[in-house]
């Protein structure tokens, strides 16, 4: 047996491993790593949100079925790759989509279906919180959801005992601890960077706003405890182990790191936790995280102020719509290829389409694409209608079409990034991860043009947040004796290979011209939401 396989087997059988599980928008992924942070095995399960009663949700059953399926897939991969059964792990971490609203009564019963980050029904609450507390409260933040439920006088508010995020919910069920990592908590309510806890002044203001309508409800008692990376967040209970693995093979007792949001795990996965660095995660949604050297001077509705898993301030540009529409068009071309009898599958189609984009005109040839499957707060859209728009004089070619589709995936993001630029925030580098960066040099190059900053893609990009939360679990397992940034630099990424692309001047000029048309064309998008139900 090769030495590396023997080493992996030893790590697995002696508990020198860390398991990270991330519940993403379209996939639940489990990632097992060894003490050198190298991936030993992965498992996954595809799932989709549902639009129920005009709200985006995932059912409670789907959460646990998906988690169990991803763990079963991981266990099978461990046996296949290393010829040993996975019965225990050295540490564990849970991560998931940030924000949203999971509400429970005193008995732990979920009061309403999980309301995800994708919902935009909280406009009144977010606006009131932003105005009263002097801090930007995005529509998707948990605090906005709580206050909207209060404003709407929803019946379940009378029974509220605890709220949390998706990662916090899974962590609670696995460990019994009602906690959140500070990065995920910063999407619940603003964090004070000095205390690494909820901002006390704003929390008192929030309590008063809620009390005006619900005098018996102390909203401060609803929130999970905040922990920073490396702190004790509990252990996997016997009940929790069975929730993950109903076969009973997985042993209880593993220490569990603070649960984090996908934004924070993306920062870890790309070593983007230092000032003047950041990362961009592209999936169903697309968002940028930029670590700040100092607080911003002004409140901007386009920017969320959150934190790294270590508690440092981050400006987040979050767009509800990312690569989904791009994937839909790729599926159409895949169907066409199959109808023509061309073999190769979806991966080959993606690669062909992406490479064609590099041949497109820098300004997209006069084409416009809007990837709005759902509402987009940054551009003021309450709902979405995917659009492809051109004029009679535009140049519709495959190359221009695909370049425009990629531009469209980055359009709203670049609007938010320009706000940061105007605030004087400078970037040394941005790290990108997500499936759209698998085709080397294409989305990466066009993203560099869209944000006018160097973009790096590393070896771990395809594993993403599941690997990132596994690293945070390993950080806990090894004692968290140094700061998170130092640990990542010296223990995790010291030998990492990175491919960095600097913005091309012609691409930047072309993209700027395209973006000007994109901004003007938002009127078309708005008209579509009004005209087409």
From TrEMBL:
All copies of the Carbohydrate kinase FGGY N-terminal domain together span 19-242
Listed SUPFAM superfamilies: Actin-like ATPase domain (SSF53067)
Q: Does the keyword DNA-binding apply?
A: no
Describe the location of the Carbohydrate kinase FGGY C-terminal domain by residue ranges: 279-474
- UniProt cross-references to InterPro entries, sorted A to Z: ATPase_NBD, FGGY_C, FGGY_Carb_Kinase, FGGY_N
Keyword field: Carbohydrate metabolism, Kinase, Transferase, Xylose metabolism
Domain of life, source organism? Bacteria
- The protein here is known as FGGY-family carbohydrate kinase
Family according to the record: Belongs to the FGGY kinase family.
- What does the record list as GO biological process? D-xylose metabolic process
What molecular functions are annotated in GO for this chain? kinase activity
